[in-house]
Specification:
This protein has about 350 residues and is mainly β. The protein is built from one helix and 24 strands.
Length: about 350
């Protein structure tokens, strides 16, 4: 074998279902490369507390890195992993990871912390200050009932360079969200919130909005109307900034779709949409792009749209597989819309289909 573990002595504890190795060594291609003191494993497949296999890495920024973790089996549904990291070029770091499974769902939380030097001025003359630095993240999902689900995740860093300095992540944004959903056969409700921490050097955190709340409700009628499906939708979102433009938006609308298949295989869809929007904005002068601002204060608009969509899919064998060629033609009729009067926060356009968004 390319690798194997050898030991001077192997002890099997039948009562505890544990095999312990005395003098264990990892061999790679016949060479004894790594002693593994205290190595043990369970024969029943369950986890057990103990040290995990250490990790050794070399990087240009942090130099030689040696990490070791200790796994604690707290209960059958919960565990804790404690880690320590030593580097030759930067200060050491510790970590902890908690995971738990409940009767409603599961969640996990991971954190890193160190005391090290950081740049306090990233735009002007560089200055270094020793500080407590770290990162914490977590996620979870809970099935509260057959219809209701609560899910969320969060990521927070002490400063903009910690994650890159310790080679934990290269992301330039950290997103946190929470979402309460209700899904039935004919309806959908989402009450959510979003927040983002920017890690870009020259980005202004005060210009990054917090979306809270973001509410979306959709209701489809059980029976066809004029042969087609009728769906109602209501949506609202508030975008708040510490140092920028604030926007609140709400709309309500109805959409009717009639879908038919012709004898030659064309898919013809008729769509009718009516919708009313209300916007409120303040501090529009803080938005540097003038065309994105919209009007200060309250603004309303109404939308009525009719569309004809024709698809003609062709399926056949080509180039070693099944290929689909689908010409598509769409006609849309709608009156002029006051797009420039409303802020361009997410999209000024009206989408008849959101399956590709």
């Amino acid at each position: 074998p390319s690798w194997r573990v050898t030991a001077d002595r192997v002890i099997y504890d039948q009562d505890q279902n544990i095999v312990r190795f005395k003098g264990a060594v990892l061999e790679l291609f016949g060479a004894r490369v790594l002693p593994m003191p205290g190595l043990s494993l369970r024969t029943d497949g369950k986890a057990t507390s103990g040290f995990l296999v250490p990790d050794v890495r070399i990087s240009r920024v942090n130099g030689l890195e040696l990490s070791s973790e200790y796994y604690v089996r707290v209960a059958d549904n919960a565990d804790l992993t404690l880690g320590a990291f030593a580097f030759t070029k930067v200060a050491p770091m510790v970590s902890a990871k908690w995971r738990q499974l409940t009767d409603k769902g599961a969640y996990q939380v991971t954190g890193y912390v160190t005391s090290s030097d950081r740049l306090t001025d990233l735009t002007g003359a560089p200055s270094v200050e020793r500080d407590l630095r770290g990162h914490i993240e977590g996620n979870g999902r809970f099935q509260l009932s057959p219809d209701w689900t609560l899910s969320g995740s969060f990521r927070l860093a002490s400063d903009r360079t910690f994650l890159r300095r310790y080679d934990i992540s290269r992301d330039d944004r950290l997103r946190s969200t929470i979402d309460l959903e209700r899904i039935t056969d004919l309806s959908y409700l989402s009450i959510a919130g979003w927040a983002t921490q920017t890690l870009r050097i020259n980005a202004d955190q005060g210009q990054i909005p917090v979306a809270l709340p973001a509410i979306d409700y959709r209701q489809k009628l059980a029976h066809p109307v004029l042969g087609g499906d009728l769906q109602f939708q209501a949506n609202s979102v508030a975008l708040l900034r510490d140092d920028g433009q604030d926007t609140q938006r709400a709309f309500a609308g109805a959409q009717w779709n009639l879908r038919r298949l012709t004898g030659m295989g064309q898919v013809v869809t008729l769509t009718g949409l009516v919708r009313g929007d209300v916007f409120h904005t303040n501090n529009t002068q803080a938005t540097t792009t003038i065309s994105y601002r919209g009007n200060e204060g309250w603004t309303a608009r109404g939308v009525a749209t009719a569309a004809l969509d024709i698809e003609w899919p062709f399926v056949g064998q080509a180039f070693g597989g099944s290929q689909v060629f689908k010409p598509r033609l769409q006609f849309v009729a709608t009156p002029n819309i006051r797009n420039l009067a409303v802020p361009n926060e997410d999209s000024r356009a009206i989408d008849l289909e959101d399956s590709n968004l």
